[in-house]
Amino acid sequence: MIKETVNVTRQFESLQVFYHQFVAEALLTAKAHVLAVGGDALLGYRINNLFLREDKRRAYAVISISGDAAKLGFDPLRG
C-alpha cells in the first residue's frame, strides 16, 4: 500500500496524523482482504516492510503486510 501527500499540514494537521491514518488504513485493508477470500478472522499479521519519508511539506509512505486468515466455524455438538 502506498500513500503520498504534497502538503501534510493542510491535509492532515501533522506528520504524525498522516502516519497514524496510513497504518490504520493498511490494517483495514488487510481485514477487507480477509473478508474477500471468505475468512472471518485475521489471526495475526506481520508488517514486512515499512518505509516512511518526509521532505519539507511532502510525505510518502509504503507498507507491506502479510497475515493469516481463518474461517471460523460453529460445531453444534460442542455448543
Description:
- It is a single chain.
- The protein has 79 residues and is α+β, with helices and mostly antiparallel strands.
- The chain has one domain (2-68).
- 34% of the residues lie in helices and 41% in strands.
- The protein is built from two helices and three strands; from the N terminus they run E-H-H-E-E.
- The chain has helices at residues 8-12, 15-36; strands spanning 2-5, 41-55, 58-70.
- A three-stranded antiparallel β-sheet has the order 1-3-2, with helices on one face.
- Strand 2 (41-55) and strand 3 (58-70) form a beta hairpin.
- It is elongated and about 60 Å long.
- The model has no long low-confidence stretch (mean pLDDT 90).
- This is C2 domain-containing protein 5 (C2 domain-containing phosphoprotein of 138 kDa).
List the helices and strands and how they pair.
Layout: E1 2-5, H1 8-12, H2 15-36, E2 41-55, E3 58-70
Task: Give the tags.
single chain, alpha+beta, 79 residues
In short:
This protein is an alpha+beta fold.
Q: Spans with pLDDT under 50 lasting ≥5 residues?
A: none
Average predicted confidence as pLDDT: 90
Specify the overall morphology: elongated
What level of helicity do the residues show? 25-40%
Order of helices and strands: EHHEE
Percent in strands: 35-45%
Number of helices: 2
